[in-house]
């Protein structure tokens, strides 16, 4: 009787163990399925823009001075003392107008006053002598400039001389007129290079003669040395350079979800980089949607979500 009871208990225990084993196996299967379903996917937030077909301009930035294109010194015909001065700085004179008188008298000898006439019509910009001073035919009495014909005088370093030529357009800015741009072009190139400074003098013609600019002003100048049209360009910050490889990320639709996209790595060949404009020689076409911000951590094939769109570059390139 005891043996039957013991046998029955053993069978009961074996059945219980089997049931527990099956239960655990079943739980583990369901648990694995739940983990697979709830597995999270990393999606990177990015900002995009569009590659555009347009133009890009290369320029050289220089500093210079605004000066009168024509400036002439006026001299006396005889030596003596400056008896009378009829003009002052800023006065407008006409050619052959009497602007001063020289007394050529000497001790024991009295002579009639000798007039000094303006050599050109223009504005008196300098009077280096005072009444009563002794003057001679080689000393200027006044300096007269034609203020309606201004130019900008610049000096370009020797290494940039090959990029200079007459007629190149330029954009001029001054502190006197903040935010205002003036235009001009190269009018004259010096035939020599200064040996001490290794620079060459350049003179710019100003297009607007009624601009309000004055001789003596400091000018910031950008000379456009190269212009390319019909090129693909993107914001410079959108391109990545790693270990000599240049690439961008373009946006593709995710066929499995409308709420996210796929980043595709695209190798490109860069060209000119001017300010924030990057020329792309090959690898992109007009209208390609690219990642402009948030691309530093991306890899090919990762999921992205576009959170903002950055305005595309202008087709025309206005040097400012």
Describe the structure.
The chain folds into three domains: 43-56 and 229-309, conserved putative lor/sdh protein from methanococcus maripaludis s2 fold; 59-67 and 148-228, Elongation Factor Tu (Ef-tu), domain 3 (Beta Barrel); 74-144, Beta Barrel (OB fold (Dihydrolipoamide Acetyltransferase, E2P)), CATH 2.40.50.100. Helices cover 11% and strands 48% of the residues. The strands form four sheets. Strands 16-17-18-22-1-21 form a six-stranded mixed sheet, with no helix packed on it. Strands 2-11-14-13-12-15 form a six-stranded antiparallel beta barrel. The chain is mainly beta. The chain has one helix at residues 2-37; strands at residues 43-50, 52-68, 71-75, 80-85, 92-93, 98-103, 114-117, 122-126, 134-135, 140-145, 150-157, 169-174, 182-189, 199-206, 218-235, 240-242, 245-253, 261-267, 269-274, 277-282, 289-293, 303-309.
Please state the average pLDDT score. Answer: 88
- Describe the global form: rod-shaped
Strand order of the largest sheet: 16-17-18-22-1-21
Q: Would you count the extended β strands for me?
A: 22
User: How many domains is the backbone divided into?
Assistant: 3
Spell out the key features of this protein:
OB fold (Dihydrolipoamide Acetyltransferase, E2P); 320 residues; 11% helix; mainly beta; rod-shaped; Elongation Factor Tu (Ef-tu), domain 3; 3 domains
Helix/strand layout:
Elements: H1 2-37, E1 43-50, E2 52-68, E3 71-75, E4 80-85, E5 92-93, E6 98-103, E7 114-117, E8 122-126, E9 134-135, E10 140-145, E11 150-157, E12 169-174, E13 182-189, E14 199-206, E15 218-235, E16 240-242, E17 245-253, E18 261-267, E19 269-274, E20 277-282, E21 289-293, E22 303-309
